[in-house]
Amino acid sequence: MTTMGDDDQQHPHWSDQPSTAAERAAGEREAERPRSPLATLATRMADVSPAWSAVTLAADDAPAGSIDVGSRDRTIGVESIREGWLLHRGASRLAAAASPDLSLLVGDWCYAAGLCEITDHGSLDDVATLARLVADVSARAGESVDA
After folding, report:
1. Side-chain half-sphere of 134: how many Cα atoms within 13 Å?
2. Which of 33, 59, 62, 100 is the 20 to 30 Å CA partner of 92?
3. Considering its fold, how many domains does the chain have in total?
4. CA 112 – CA 121 distance, rounded (Å)
5. Torsion angle, CA of 54/48/108/30, rounded to 10 degrees?
6. pLDDT digit string (tens) for 33-58?
């Protein structure tokens, strides 16, 4: 039985395996310097589609600051969820040039990707807590729009 994290095919767009010699060489150069969690997220977002790549900051231009939640992988997950929330509000740190429709789509992807990352590297309790937080924040945002 396969569980979350046992099969890299569950997140093919997050694969760290380069497919060409040029990508392998670039990956070797990239491995020489540590990347911020936001730079990693920017790269993952840009890799999803050409439309996303066109509006996502280059990894080198991504802000350095991030929320530290213990492990790098969990930090990437939390920052993904945070970026999804920011995208939905038109305040992205990584894709400020996105149209409102694209911001909504990329924001949904960031929410889902963050929950997957937490699932892969955290506990189910972590995922449940974050899911409740996302639902609560979304409900409160909806209430303020309705008012």
Report:
1. 24
2. 33
3. 1
4. 14
5. -90
6. 568 999 999 999 999 999 999 999 99
